[in-house]
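During the no-cost extension, the postdoctoral fellow (Dr. R.K.) reprocessed legacy sequence entries with the updated structure-token encoder. One reprocessed record is reproduced below for audit purposes.
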Amino acid sequence: MTSSKFPTPLGQGGPPSATPGGIRLGLRANLTQFTLLVVVNALVGGMLGQERTVLPLLADDVFHLSAYTAALTYILAFGTTKAITNFFAGTWSDRYGRKPVLIAGWLIALPVPAMLAWGPSWAWIIAANVLLGMNQGLTWSTTVIMKIDLVGPERRGLAMGFNEAAGYLAVAATAMATGAIAEHAGLRPEPFLLSAAYLVLALALSTVFVRETRDHARAEAALHPVQTATEMTTAQIARRTSLTDKALSAASQAGLVNNLNDALAWGIFPLLFAAHGLSIAQIGVLAALYPAVWGAGQMLTGWWSDHIGRKHLITAGMLLQAAAIALVAAGTTFSVWATAQILLGIGTALVYPTLLAVIGDVAHPAWRARAVGVYRLWRDGGFAVGALVAGALADAYSLTTAIWAVAALTAASGLVVAVRMYETHPRPTPAGN
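Re-encoded structure tokens follow.
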């Protein structure tokens, strides 16, 4: 019989409320810091949302970029930089602490609003997106890691649901706000001034009120038997997350395709809508609808994955995304596209927090931050892949051809999850078994 003095292994049963060092794990025990980090991540999302409606139109109307591949270079720059920064964010947060990495992410972003608002050439927009990618990689990765640190293993899905909901509801709200501002004041500079206020508030909160959480991860690691895996190098962790572990690798490829879809929605959908005569305000509504449903839905789907498991939600979400993208390709009216955006948001909500919960389930606390970094390297690499694939197909064929191709790729990704991933969140063991 197992003594109640010792906790259950990682991912099995509920964690104790306090560790041997006196650090308390759990959502309720850390509610103030958790809530603060939710607010900070909403501001991270707002920084991304400033571009969703305005920048694709800016490329066409202000900088007169006729080739789709050229117009999507800002997404390529953003995605590549963010993906690489994600990887280092995990390593740096283990080495230096979570809070310094978070603050560094906000400092890097300080020039971004001015560069977007007044940059005299497209090169300035690309440079701003390099800085924005670094900002998003450092700040979003760190808020994810810090929330996982605080809540312990039993409520990871719920924690990731709140984290991603805050970020993408802010993306949606800011996309709609900047669309409305652009409709009345023009594409520049007014829509980008909102993010300057986000930056000041986020930097103040992160510097003054956010507390370091690395000791929570160390305390959780101390609860579990010493494993050989805890001594893995970063290269071994990268290989395991990318290739050898079936759940981690399936999550990594699904994350890449999911953000490839987001690049499509960010860069191609507004151009398609504009080509069919929609106004900037209508495009802003459509650009906001998808991340709004995605964001709000994650508060349910993260919790749901804690109760029914991860794999089937991810599979269903990828297949629903494929159907929604196909509906965008087939549609020609605002109402059809609005329906498609809602379905795409639901599908993404099923997938997004659940994939992060998979990483938290499988990775040991001693190397979890680095595994999150590797996963987010793959996931946000999808922005770069999406910009290249969608831009090249749109230039060679048409916007709708690019959208149909991504729909097929998304369906294939869902089937990979169905075949390869194992369930990572075990059901509670009945009493007496």
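The chain has one domain: 31-220+232-420. Residues 1-17, 428-433 have pLDDT under 50 and may be disordered. The remaining legacy entries will be reprocessed before the final report is submitted.
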